[in-house]
Design a protein that fits this description.
The chain is mainly beta and about 625 residues long. It contains three helices and 47 strands. Strands 25, 28, 29, 31, 32, 33, 34 and 36 form an eight-stranded antiparallel β-sheet that branches. It has a seven-stranded mixed beta barrel with strand order 1-2-5-6-8-4-3. A five-stranded mixed β-sheet has the order 15-16-10-17-18, covered by helices on one side.
């Protein structure tokens, strides 16, 4: 795409800054068309007053006077919501960008002045309909950084420019580099998850919006756009007046970092004001909300639908399904792909050409795609026979090998043994060899952690024909549920239940199999988390967050509804990246002078230099609480 400026609108502002709106169109090559701006406002539209709401979406509302050039107005009859790209500047500084929607567009239907109104969106909502763009050939057991997934999702909005990503989060596991090592060291580039984490069903991935929401929520962060950049901000840390930050380019390359991020503006009285920010029209209200005695998270352990990558044999190239290897030897032995395009899977047809001991026809997981398996889990293998030999011979030999590079264990059908063995699939007793039927077997708990090798073979002492599909491996972990809690008093009154998708405790320190367990690059599970500068370590990130949630929720909260001016403060432009405080002369119990705030619902009018906002109270001061967890287990033996 080659977007070029097609339209420009200018908006005078009472703030002393001039707002400019540019609309770019793909492949446009004409002259710039200018219209007079009437109104323009930026809205932040959360779903609630919960500061931990992970996705903080925004939209731009625009009104233009198009009377004098009606013939050249933007074409909003198109279904293409990427036809026009909007860029908002204050003077020369980019403040916001997004796609213009051809929905709820209004134009005056009169012979007077013609006004055109429309909205542009930051694109986060668009991500709900875009699955995580991972190639079908990708090994779903491979791992990548959270930063990789974040940039992949945000880049899927497909802006013609590439906004940087500001991260303000300093939660670490022991073993990570933190800010004392390098100023740019933050957790998203050091924390890993397997691709299988984000699979919805079969090989369909969840949406980019859900990926972002789950990651951001799991770190107690908020994602939003401000100043023409994406921001991911730990809510509690943002209550600090100075913060560590790491700024990335859209490719995930560090652009800048430091400890001096300060966006604080204090709301002061109009007389003697030095901050440039003050209440207007005397409509401000303190809204007091009851706090919570207890914060809890009931975390159900989930596993992947399939730990074999490309178990349905699609995609494939020639005879080779991605992530699979084939073998055949001897006269007449063949391994071929059977591809029925009306099915959601392909099949492997194995023929062993003669009864010679050297003849073989087999399929096996390809080297490099071996699942990484923790010790102490049960494995259940299954597949579908689309046809098989009749008779008394086994339908094949299954080789299941678990190795850590030093020790090796094979499954012999009854137990794990340390010498090379196989498991024989019993002969089929159905009426015909072409019957479709499923087969499965379950192992005892794995004796070690390591790479899992799987091979299905027709060879000496087996039948000569099998057609297979839908290879699957499921696992049963030790833990099935963890109840996390942090409380001031352990009562059932005023309990806040939170949902945290990832970052739980695991009983497996190496190659944990549960969905959402964070990893280091070497496959180990981080087991000791802390906030940089804090003195307490927690067994999991979820437990750290339980304390952070307590720091916000375990108090009577005082939010503020108000009208503010000016949008241009002495410490930056008013937007979602701003930290707020306010002077206050009220009595101590309702005085908010020491409180920190971030934006909630907000409408920022640039021409009027007026912002209608809700300020949400946040805190990074520890409240002493009882913080712990209770584990429920599966029966494995």
């Amino acid at each position: 795409m080659a977007y070029q400026n097609k339209y420009k609108a200018t908006f005078a502002s009472k703030s002393g800054k001039t707002a400019y709106l540019y609309l770019q169109e793909d492949s446009y090559a004409g002259s710039l068309i200018e219209y007079q701006g009437v109104g323009i406002n930026l809205q932040y539209i959360p779903n609630s007053d919960d500061p931990f709401e992970p996705i903080y979406a925004s939209q731009l509302g625009v009104v233009l006077d198009v009377t004098d050039n009606l013939a050249n107005i933007p074409d909003f009859t198109t279904l293409n919501d990427r036809k026009y790209f909007a860029k908002l500047y204050l003077d020369a500084d980019l403040q916001w960008c997004g796609w213009v929607l051809s929905d709820n567009v209004q134009i005056s239907y009169s012979t007077g002045r013609k006004e055109l109104s429309f909205n542009a969106v930051d694109g986060l909502g668009i991500l709900k309909s875009i699955p995580l763009p991972i190639a079908a050939s990708t090994d779903t057991n491979a791992i990548n950084t959270l930063l990789y997934y974040i940039t992949l999702c945000l880049n899927s909005i497909d802006f013609p420019i590439d906004p940087n990503i500001m991260t303000v989060c300093s939660y670490y596991a022991t073993g990570m580099d933190d800010r004392s090592d390098y100023s740019y060291s933050e957790p998203f580039n050091q924390t890993y998850l397997p691709y299988r984490t984000f699979i919805d069903t079969d090989i369909t991935y969840i949406s980019c919006l859900d990926v972002l929401s789950n990651i951001v929520k799991s770190f107690g962060c908020r994602l939003f756009q401000a100043g023409g950049k994406w921001w991911i901000v730990a809510v509690n840390e943002f209550a600090n007046e100075n913060n560590w930050f790491t700024e990335y380019t859209y490719t995930g390359t560090v652009a800048s970092s430091g400890s001096n991020l300060n966006t604080l503006s204090v709301i002061q009285g109009y007389v003697g004001n030095t901050s440039g920010l003050y209440f207007i029209d005397n409509s401000q209200l303190k809204i007091m909300k009851k706090g919570f005695n207890k914060v809890e998270c009931n975390y159900d352990v989930t596993i992947a639908d399939n730990y074999i990558s490309n178990g349905n044999f699609r995609p494939f190239t020639g005879l080779y399904a991605d992530n699979w290897q084939i073998n055949f030897a001897g006269i007449g032995s063949t391994v071929t792909i059977v591809n029925n395009t009306t099915d959601s899977f392909a099949q492997y047809r194995l023929i062993r050409g003669s009864t010679s001991i050297t003849n073989e026809a087999s399929i096996e997981i390809k080297s490099g795609s071996y699942p990484k398996i923790a010790g102490g889990v049960k494995l259940t293998f299954s597949w579908i026979f689309q046809g098989q030999d009749l008779g008394n011979l086994p339908r094949g030999h299954v080789y299941v090998l678990l190795t850590d590079g030093t020790a090796s264990w094979w499954w012999d059908g009854t137990a794990w043994v340390s010498t090379s063995q196989y498991y024989s699939v019993p002969a089929y007793s159905g009426p015909s060899g072409s019957d479709v039927n499923s087969f499965s077997f379950t192992t005892a708990v794995t004796p070690i952690s390591g790479e899992l090798h799987f091979k299905y073979a027709l060879e000496n002492s087996t039948g000569t024909f099998a057609q297979l599909s839908n290879m699957s491996l499921k696992m049963t972990p030790l833990i099935n549920n963890i109840y996390y809690f942090s409380y001031l008093s352990n009562t059932n009154e005023y309990v806040k239940t939170v949902e945290i998708p990832y970052g739980s405790f695991s009983s497996y320190y190496f190659y944990p199999i549960e969905i959402g367990i964070f990893l280091f690059s070497n496959g180990y599970n981080p087991s000791s988390w802390y906030q940089y500068g804090g003195a307490t370590n927690y067994p999991s990130l979820i437990q750290l967050l339980m304390q952070q949630f307590t720091n916000v929720y375990a108090r009577n909260i005082i939010n503020v509804d108000c009208s503010l001016s000016s949008l241009s403060t002495t410490n930056g432009i008013l937007n979602a990246s701003k930290l707020f405080k306010a002077t206050d002369t009220d009595p101590n119990q309702i005085n908010i002078a020491s409180n920190s705030y971030m934006l909630g619902n907000a409408t920022i009018s640039y021409p009027n230099d007026e912002s209608q906002v809700t300020l949400l109270q946040i805190s990074n001061t520890n409240i002493v609480s009882t913080n712990g967890y209770e584990i429920s287990y599966n029966t494995l033996i």
